[in-house]
Amino acid sequence: MTVRYRCDDTNRLKKNVVDRMHLPFTNFCLYDKLLFVRTNGKVMYMDKEKQIIEHIKNNPYISQQELANLVNISRSAVAGYIAALTKKGIIKGRAYVLRDEKIVMCIGGANLDRKAYSKQKVTLHTSNPVTIKESCGGVARNIAENLGRLGSTVMLMSGVGDDKEGKLLLQKTKQHGVDVSQVWVFPTQNTGTYTAMLDQDGEMVVSLADMDIYDALTPALFADKWPQINATEVVFIDTNIPEDALQFIIERCKQEDIPLYIDPVSSIKAQKLPHDLSGVKGMMPNLDEAEVLSGISINSTEDAKQACKIMHERGVEQVIITMGEKGVYCSTEHDDQLLPPFSTEVVDVTGAGDAFASGLLYGIVQALPIIIACQLGLAASMLTLQSEQSVSPELSAEKLYSVIKEQTT
User: Fold this and answer.
1) What digits encode the pLDDT tens for the residues 378-403?
2) What is the pLDDT of residues 63-82, one digit of tens each?
């Protein structure tokens, strides 16, 4: 069979040649040094980059010379493609780990939580009888564990000491489906600790944080791991990391169009954020943090709306203010809405904000509308308020949707 084309040197017409010839191949066909794939009866041309990706998918340990032979280009050309794919974050390193479109990267605090439960009304400036319990904590780590329990693919990037606390944190976090391979272990640092004292009603009286280890998380360290960060669907950071590292991550995520969500952690640490927040997809402050970020007092829903407007002007696309008993104020550039909280008996407030952020991020990764994502966050927060632990053992995706159904019908 002869097929004639006036300009058969173009890729499009070469595809037509293959299509018209009805060649007896199932998936692939090499024609005039080009690779074509037949999918659902259609023939599509695959460029060199796509060919390399397909070969790596089939064999992550394939050598560059083998790739060169298969794709019919030089080994040095393959090296160029590999470098470009790594820079894009499509390849995360040897053995050529490819991008998973649904990974959430959580960057920030991972520390040991100690909670002191008062046995009577707390009296300042004197000794108070308490019961002390320990658990794994840290904003980014809590959110990573929550997401792991919800079935998300999640990675944690943080720093721990080479001590028993650090080993415990990594072991326990990994057990809940979190990839901890990107956590730095510093031999000369102590793992971070957070100590909270709670009154008889479960409300926090005072908290103490030993977080010096996070000063070691420099922009250079994050630059070195940027291929892993760039390969994720969503990046979450808390403000436990240093100011220059926050600036670096915000700028890089903006440059490379990576959705970035931020938890300011506290009114003090919120001040580490740069004024220019353009490129930040979402900010999740509580009332105190929102006041710092907006520069105004928030005493009403109208105040919350104005605070969100100011943060939008600073560059944030979505602002979600957690307002305690009043609920959650969700603001985008086009809509504002106050969502009431889900009613429950409070056992311990610690971790409730982290749980809300986890439910929200879970919804974002599932490509759900922001309001539905906020409802998932409220459900996760409710379950955590019912628990003495910073991460509720009851947390699951099915449970969240069940809570939403119960609370909204």
Assistant:
1) 999 999 898 877 788 889 999 999 99
2) 778 888 888 887 777 877 88
31 and 115, same structural domain?
no
Same domain, residue pair 245 and 145: yes
The boundaries of the domain holding residue 13 are: 1-46
3-state secondary structure the chain: CCCCCCCCCCHHHHHHHHHHHCCCCCCEEEECCEEEEEECCEEEEECHHHHHHHHHHHCCCCCHHHHHHHHCCCHHHHHHHHHHHHHHCCECCCCCCECCCCEEEEECCCEEEEEEEECCCCCCCCCCCEEEEEEEECHHHHHHHHHHHCCCEEEEECEEECCHHHHHHHHHHHHCCEECCCCEEECCCCCCEEEEEECCCCCEEEEEEECHHHHHCCHHHHHHCHHHHHCCCEEEEECCCCHHHHHHHHHHHHHCCCCEEEECCCCCHHHHCCCCCCCCCEECCEHHHHHHHHCCCCCCHHHHHHHHHHHHHCCCCEEEEECHHHCEEEECCCCEEEECCCCCCCCCCCCHHHHHHHHHHHHHHCCCCHHHHHHHHHHHHHHHHCCCCCCCCCCCHHHHHHHHHHHHC
68: CATH: 1.10.10
> What does the pLDDT average to over 371-375?
95
Confidence bin at 61 (pLDDT 50/70/90):
low
Do 171 and 66 share a structural domain? no
10 and 110 assigned to the same domain: no
Which CATH number fits the domain that encloses residue 400? 3.40.1190.20
Total domain count, the chain: 3
Considering the domain architecture, whether residues 372 and 394 belong to the same structural domain is answered as yes
